[in-house]
Design brief:
The chain has helices at 59-68, 70-87, 123-153, 192-204, 213-222, 226-240, and strands at residues 14-22, 25-34, 40-43, 49-54, 90-93, 96-103, 109-110, 115-118, 162-166, 173-175, 180-184. The strands form 3 sheets. It has a 4-stranded mixed β-sheet. A 4-stranded mixed β-sheet has the order 5-6-8-7, with no helix packed on it. Strands 9-11-10 form a 3-stranded mixed β-sheet, covered by helices on one side. Helix 3 (123-153) crosses helix 4. It has 6 helices and 11 strands. By secondary structure, the protein is of the alpha/beta class. Bound molecules: zinc ion.
Length: 241
């Protein structure tokens, strides 16, 4: 990518975008250079990152300044993200946002395009209904993938593991030796092929308890593109977990 960033000495001000990494996330910096003496970093209410710099700043000076403030920036972005998620204008389902729409008919209904919410409901009412719906949907979706893949794994266990849907903060799923497969309710925010990846990953643990070469070979036999999916899971997961 070739841009004439920080190259013009004659202009009195200019704007420029720059992409940087913050704690593994790609973040776009909106840079405004003008006649000023100091740099100033700011995160707006909507989560965009503005950086004001003196006209003669070099690229290295900018990077150094941002690096110095990276912990602050990371924390601030997390706060904004949480607040935006709570405000929740839309339900993120299978990788697609479905906006909440007031229903004059008074029904709660999740469709492919939107989520109908009875007019006059409080946020708490809506949240409760959404969670109830999600739990039901999760059982449906997760069971589908477990049943779909079970023939490939039935030789490794006396019986099909029992599904438990959980809200977890740090992991997508786990497999207990007592015969349970625990899957995170938040998986429903991800596209189906990533839900499938997590289910197959956990089923592979029926055969291999670690993530060693045997585990990876089995996973690759089932899902030849598992590495691509895993990358995508990490990319999206950072926004969700
Ligand atoms: Zn694992």
């Amino acid at each position: 990518m070739k841009v004439n960033l920080f190259s013009s000495a004659r202009r009195t001000s200019y704007r420029q975008e720059m992409i940087i990494g913050v704690a593994g996330d790609e973040v776009t910096l909106n840079i405004t250079a003008s006649q000023r003496r100091t740099m100033r970093l700011q995160v707006t209410e909507e989560g965009s990152v503005d950086l004001r710099i003196p006209l003669n700043s070099s690229r290295n000076e900018v990077l150094r300044f941002v690096k110095l403030h990276e912990p602050w920036l990371h924390e601030r972005l997390e706060q904004v993200r949480e607040r935006l998620q709570k405000r929740g204008d839309a339900l993120l389902l299978y990788g697609k946002e479905r906006p909440y729409v007031a229903s004059a008919l008074g029904e709660f209904l999740v469709t492919d395009e939107q989520v109908w919410v009875p007019e006059g409901w409080t946020d708490a009412q809506r949240e409760k209904a959404v969670e109830q719906w999600l739990r039901q949907e999760a059982r449906h979706e997760f069971s589908y993938w477990i049943n779909h893949w079970w023939p490939d794994f039935s030789a490794f266990a006396p019986q099909q593991p029992v599904l438990r849907v959980k809200k977890m903060k740090t992991r997508w799923g786990s497999l207990s030796r007592k015969g349970y497969i625990n899957l995170n309710l938040h998986l429903l925010a991800l596209p189906h092929e990533l839900v499938e990846l997590v289910v197959v990953h956990e089923l592979c643990h029926l055969r291999h308890f670690d993530h060693g070469p045997g585990f990876r070979r089995l996973l690759a036999e089932c899902l030849p593109d598992w590495q691509q999916r895993e990358k995508e899971l990490h990319r999206r997961g950072q926004l969700l977990l």
